[in-house]
Amino acid sequence: MDSGYTQDHSYVCPLYITGVLKVDCYEAARLMFWTNWNEQSPSIMRAQLSGSNVLRIIGTDIRTPNGLAIDHRSEKLYFTDATLDKIERCEYDGSHRYVILKNEPVHPFGLAVYGDQIFWTDWVRRAVLRAGKFVGADMKVLRADIPQQPMGIIAVANDTNSCKSDPERIPSLRLFLCSN
What we know:
The protein is mainly beta. The protein has one helix spanning 161-165; strands at residues 20-26, 31-36, 43-48, 55-58, 65-71, 76-81, 86-90, 98-102, 108-114, 117-122, 127-132, 140-143, 150-157, 173-179.
């Protein structure tokens, strides 16, 4: 039981953290990432799924890390900062940071990655938007005038099995939106 796994094979993480908004896991690499809203030292953190090897991978030029998404195919981490109004990506160790969009996401909150697109919620616009994940090209408002501030967003392929059998086929996509 020292590994963190229970008898029913669920996982219990022994890590205690405060000021966390978003947690995302990458099981293949046995890593988890989370945003840290600590006012004195906001950051993006990483640890093993066991809770060991806790690292601050982003600790500079960040104020309010809200959204967090893992792009498993390209092995990149994407995150939003609502105070600095930007969406960035980096390697799993925090290196090679690249600002994809700046100032155009007015108050980015939730974030998802699917295919070559990023999707995010914006609290000020009360909208869901998308853009190209590489340089932010072709930004488009997908839904506007949402009555409540849109929170998290999840992108789910309708037919993920077809990706393995036919990599050229792009399955249709569903976006799930959470509001407060």
